[in-house]
């Protein structure tokens, strides 16, 4: 997107967020936030991200991995930042009653944290599932093993 378009989106976003007299369409607000990458320090929209899935969708929309994203889009929010947020929250946040540990596992999978999925499952009563997933991940090159780490350090 051109810098002119992004600055126009930013201007309208700022006007919407300051104008409390008129009701704001929360979905329009979300589109402006995502397209213009506005206020990346505030990564939630409580009126439309009421579920974990909606919250994760917004987070994944805001993630950018290109080297020029921070220069051109007014902020830097990478997948590694989102992964740290999920690890900081931990499984207790997404499954407070410990009724379904798979909720947290799915979030970890969707954010490419394969090693953490295996670790979390193995640390709970799902050790067999952890081993099966680890075998599948490793066979497809998705799991960093000890050998991989040593090879990376030698490079």
UniProtKB/TrEMBL annotation:
Primary localisation category: nucleus
Tree of life domain: Eukaryota
Matches recorded under Pfam families: Nic96
Keywords in alphabetical order: Membrane, mRNA transport, Nuclear pore complex, Nucleus, Protein transport, Translocation, Transport
GO aspect biological process, one term: protein import into nucleus
Any one annotated GO CC term: nuclear pore
Subcellular location: Nucleus envelope; Nucleus, Nuclear pore complex
An MF annotation (GO) of this entry: structural constituent of nuclear pore
InterPro entries: Nucleoporin_int_Nup93/Nic96 (IPR007231)
UniProt record similarity statement: Belongs to the nucleoporin interacting component (NIC) family.
Name this protein carries in UniProt: Nuclear pore protein
Source organism of the structure: Umbelopsis vinacea
